[in-house]
Amino acid sequence: MSPIILLSFLVVYFAILLAVSYFTSKDSSDNSTFFVANRNAKWYMVAFGMIGTALSGVTFISVPGDVGNTPGGMSDPNNFSYFQFVIGNAIGFVIIAYVLLPLYYRMNLTSIYTYLEERLGHKSYKSGAMIFLISRTIGSAFRLYLVAIVLQRYIFDAWNVPFILTVAVCLVLIWLYTNKGGLKTIIITDTLQTTFLLLAVILSIYFMADGLGLTVFEAFEKVKDSSYSKIFVWENLLGDTRHFWKHIIGGAFVTIAMTGLDQDLMQKNLSMKTIGEAQKNMMTFTSIFIVINLFFLAVGALLYFYADANGIKLADLGKSDYLYPEIALRHLSLLPGIIFMMGLTAATFATTDSALTALTTSYCVDFLNFNKKENPNDPKLVKQRNFVHLGFSVVMLLVILLFHWINDESVVSAIFKIAGYTYGPLLGLFSFGILTKRRVNDNLVPFICVISPLLIFLLNQYVLPHTAYKIGFELIVYNGLITYLLLLITSPGKVEGKIAGSK
User: Fold this and answer.
1) Among residues 75, 97, 308, 449, which one has the fewest Cβ atoms lying within 10 Å of its Cβ?
2) What is the pTM of this model?
């Protein structure tokens, strides 16, 4: 496919997003609009738009590509075992809806980390907020980096455009359409981008089936009857990271920590008028999330069918992440290629724009204390917020360039995984606050938040490889548990008086 066609599509796509930004922010661009959309968002729009935020561009290309991967030298491919993790995610979303959201709404929070200040102490609060800033910056930069590589390979390399310019233009465009309206704009753009994402997945199935000479129903039947449709892994609890219970437990706690304790997705849930609407939003989102992941897995099976039928070898591509773009952009016709790029772009920028807004909100509230100002919508504070928003865009650019400079996939992946480790202390902090009536030694909390992920990292790197046990997504549970136990051991006693957030 001609790079000029793909570039033309991207130009039109961003023009639409900029137009949405203009109309949503022209009447109001103050801090209340930016941070919580004036707490006037419609739950059904937030529920639909959150799909685009939850499913990044990495998910868009990695989940389908991973269907035929053989993990750790195992003889059988991943198949649909990832769906076990999705079921765990759904359990986590239910816990968020009926445990965490009521707490956040009772306390009328803008940043969810202010709970830690009232319940545990000032340093606990700053530690939790800093964990989020570091984790989300690295995680979002990593996701945008992997997709930028795809854009570079299939579009911009044709004109010898430097990688730094590719990334910089992407971030400038995201900054332009989120700078004024913030969350109010993102709720609208995420709805639009989720629509593109869903269309891309559904139409990809149609065009892939057509390329194989099948109807959509015949394609689903072929997937169902194939070896790829295996979901549940019951054997080898210790040695297989894909075992049912590891995926279920890991999926639930990863969701609680990386969604329920993450300012990014929670910020959208806090933009509604009532807790009832927020819970309705979360449960609707969960239903759509389950279905769309099944579609992603079906796309993955069809990709491998198509690759087998057309002599496309995964070894020639270098990694499974390139299978979907390779087939869509170089083997199918023009329309499927544009649809793929539409879905990839929508998934990527729905995640990045939301992250930049959440990072700006957290920094302004948790470190600049906007929520404690007499008038949070003071023009000087709005101007200050604009500089913070720009600053995080620059930081994300620098982190992506660092990944590119390292140019070692194993090292870059390790950095991303380390960011994942840091959510464990958040899980431990919030669990301690909610499940116990004890105080913490606030001065020790920053050190505990460093020691806990470091201990679990060393355990996973140097101890577990010499045992029969292979750790999977449940790693975050052990991480959070270590944090919890260290807080308990160092606790000076019970809280006197009412606990923050309790009825």
Assistant:
1) 75
2) 0.85
